[in-house]
């Protein structure tokens, strides 16, 4: 059973704080190991990649080739059954359509002094996408990470994926093709991140690295940040379901379990205004767990990190919702749409009884890479913006310089920056302020 | 003299690479010291702030008060001379007008299956602004960091500033008032960052911390990242001036020195198509250095990190410009506007002979907090977006669920995620795919 909290308990605030501060992740300290691998790849390039891949993935890239060829990609796509491939294409096309709406326009204007100002967005030259091998290898994740890059207009979208014993996941490769990935290499771990950041003879360096990975990959991303851009380091997944008693408890239980089954460190929370409904959901969770393939993981997550919170009204829940700042927020209540507009902090909101969170994981369109661990208070899901950057511009003329130049000189002098003042004053017609 | 490179030299590529990889910054390892300070403030709150402030700033906040009061702010504004205050207000109003154009609109739409999708932007609840004390205390920096937060709609804009021996900079306080800062505390260093991130009895925690600082402040921001958002850690300032021989060499020399005077680690580079003009600029730099107040710093920067690159044409310079990816790019050439449109990587572009970079430091309108050390390849200047975050949303109906639900079920099954599949299938009218 997940823990139960009631907003009317005397100790509620303390229990709620405990829930918020549950330390669900235990990251091993792999800093030094990762630093060594990065330095090795930086110095020795492809040879280092081959050595690490032999050691960690028991695979010889020197004889088999580091790159996955176009022919191998074709073969992988052939190996996927038609229905799954069709579903993948529906997903890719919906994700693309959504992300195309994100493409920023920039702006420019000329102010009353005749000064022309603005900003424009351009894509990064090359993006790297880390894809985990083995069990955590999700084709949906390839779509969600690569499509925004392609939509942004990134020229090179480079995927790295470990292939332990040479095994690849055909659906992951099919997803890479659908998503517009332009290069794929059979390498994983910190060594793959190093190759993307520093480049090797085979893998040209990229400017931005995204995608999920284990502790080594996360630490490698942290260490190369600055040389390249990175996405945020994702924590375990979370869902907050807000539901009234007019839902089928089995539906809500399935939603809670859809996060819980990801990882024992995942967190599922239900907020409801009806204690009897809470009981019914708890019972439905147990019933589902009897049949689900990943029941062991889901049960551990639910029992360790899960919670059911009862409130007297959803208005009273609103501050709790903002404090939780959930990665995924599902609103299965009356007036869900209006209520959603009042929520300030959440990565993604799933509105209404017919919008299970899983629809967003795969196919709705918005990105499923979302801020975890309460970081939705200050950060956002992955987007087209993450693969672009802004350049601002200013173009002055005589009139503009006369209008605002003297103020710039004044401020530069107040800050004691003589060359700043000089560079403006020297251009003023009457050398005012110079 | 700064180094000279010519694109026709045989060794040009090697010399250019050396220039790009100049390690201008030597950050001391302050990781452990900072970790200790953060833990202390987290555990002991205001008492720890008082102890560190006594030790590092020789100032007693327990008797003098941690907060700078509204009356003290009034007195500071009174102390600023009228002309400087007027210049500050021109700057604030122009910066505000520019940043108001950044306020993102978000979007929503209903697709052909009747599915409602979109995203909206909301401000963070509270932002913290670090302002260095002493020499590096720049009022322009207060405007550039605080105004975007205020424009974003951030409710609490909290400034921290060390006041060694109790000394404050009246112009910094006046800038805080103009910029819409809502709270100011006399505390600096890692301890101030800790207070902003974790909160104390006096200082409520914020969600995002921005602003420049020394190595301790930068490391503290790195360590609290995740608990709060942070801006990027700025490196030493840079300018790349691209100029033809129709400029007054003295103007261009002043522009190069306006970055060089910031810091001995700053970098100023000139690209020109005329070797004689290059000589004239180099001579003008020497002439200016004879009179400038910060000549010693500027000279060291120019001689250690500066460069003049001669090219046969500005078209040939374009790839170099993108590889340098300068924080500030000044285009003092014929056809500068059209040329600017071809540049892919730069933090900010100053177009034309009458647009010295310093005009952007103070008064033009765009932000002066810009990506340094070639990070303009993947990152952008500070903006309103940095104080906001996006929440995506989806609202399904029966028709939409029937249209795309089965594809979601298929993909969830292909990924082996049974509860994901169940949460969608259970809502499908005929339980397809369930």
Automatic annotation (TrEMBL), chains A, B:
The active site is at 327 (proton acceptor), 328 (proton acceptor). Binds 1 zinc ion per subunit. Zn(2+) binds at residues 259, 262, 361, 420. GO terms for cellular component: cytosol. Substrate binds at residues 237, 259, 262, 328, 361, 415, 420. GO terms for molecular function: histidinol dehydrogenase activity; NAD binding; zinc ion binding. Its EC number is 1.1.1.23. Coiled coil: none annotated. Its cofactor is Zn(2+). Keywords: Amino-acid biosynthesis, Histidine biosynthesis, Metal-binding, NAD, Oxidoreductase, Zinc. InterPro entries: Ald_DH/histidinol_DH, Histidinol_DH_CS, Histidinol_DH_monofunct, Hstdl_DH. Pathway: Amino-acid biosynthesis; L-histidine biosynthesis; L-histidine from 5-phospho-alpha-D-ribose 1-diphosphate: step 9/9. NAD(+) binds at residues 130, 191, 214. GO terms for biological process: L-histidine biosynthetic process. It catalyses: L-histidinol + 2 NAD(+) + H2O = L-histidine + 2 NADH + 3 H(+). The keyword Cell wall biogenesis/degradation does not apply. Catalyzes the sequential NAD-dependent oxidations of L-histidinol to L-histidinaldehyde and then to L-histidine. HAMAP family: HisD (MF_01024). Belongs to the histidinol dehydrogenase family. This is Histidinol dehydrogenase. The gene is hisD.
């Amino acid at each position: 059973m997940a823990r139960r909290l009631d907003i009317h308990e005397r100790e509620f605030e303390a229990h709620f704080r405990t829930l918020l501060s549950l330390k669900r992740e235990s990251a091993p300290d792999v800093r030094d190991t990762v630093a060594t691998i990065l330095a090795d790849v930086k110095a020795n390039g492809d040879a280092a990649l081959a050595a690490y891949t032999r050691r960690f993935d028991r695979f010889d890239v020197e004889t088999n080739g580091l790159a996955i060829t176009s022919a191998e990609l074709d073969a992988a796509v052939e190996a996927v059954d038609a229905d799954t491939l069709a579903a993948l294409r529906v997903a890719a096309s919906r994700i693309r359509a959504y992300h195309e709406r994100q493409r920023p326009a920039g702006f420019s204007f000329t102010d009353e002094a005749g000064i022309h100002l603005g900003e424009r967005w351009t894509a990064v030259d090359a993006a790297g996408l880390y894809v985990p091998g083995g069990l955590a290898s999700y084709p949906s994740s390839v779509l969600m990470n690569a499509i925004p890059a392609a939509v942004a207009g990134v020229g090179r979208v480079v995927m790295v994926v470990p292939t332990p014993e040479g095994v690849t996941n055909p659906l992951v490769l099919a997803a890479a093709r659908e998503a517009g990935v332009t290069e794929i290499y059979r390498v994983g771990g910190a060594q793959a991140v190093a190759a993307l950041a520093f480049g090797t003879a085979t893998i040209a360096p990229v400017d931005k690295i995204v995608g999920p990975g284990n502790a080594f990959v996360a630490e490698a991303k942290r260490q190369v940040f600055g040389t390249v851009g990175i996405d945020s380091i994702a924590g375990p997944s979370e869902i907050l379901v807000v539901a009234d008693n007019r839902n089928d408890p089995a539906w809500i239980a399935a939603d809670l379990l859809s996060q819980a089954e990801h990882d024992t460190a995942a967190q599922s929370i239900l907020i409801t205004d009806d204690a009897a409904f809470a009981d019914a959901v708890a019972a439905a969770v147990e019933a589902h767990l009897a049949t689900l393939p990943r029941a062991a993981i889901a049960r551990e997550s639910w029992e360790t990190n899960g919670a059911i919170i009862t409130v007297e009204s959803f208005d009273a829940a609103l501050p709790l919702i903002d404090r939780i700042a959930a990665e995924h927020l599902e609103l299965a209540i009356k007036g869900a749409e209006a209520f959603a507009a009042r929520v300030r902090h959440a990565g993604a909101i799933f509105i209404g009884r017919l919008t299970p969170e899983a629809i967003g994981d795969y196919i709705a369109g918005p990105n499923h890479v979302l801020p975890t661990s309460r970081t939705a208070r200050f950060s956002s899901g992955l987007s087209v913006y993450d693969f672009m950057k802004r350049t601002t511009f200013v173009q002055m003329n005589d009139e503009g310089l006369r209008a605002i130049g003297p103020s710039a000189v004044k401020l530069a002098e107040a800050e004691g920056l003589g060359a700043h003042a000089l560079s403006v004053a020297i251009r003023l017609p009457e050398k005012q302020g110079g």
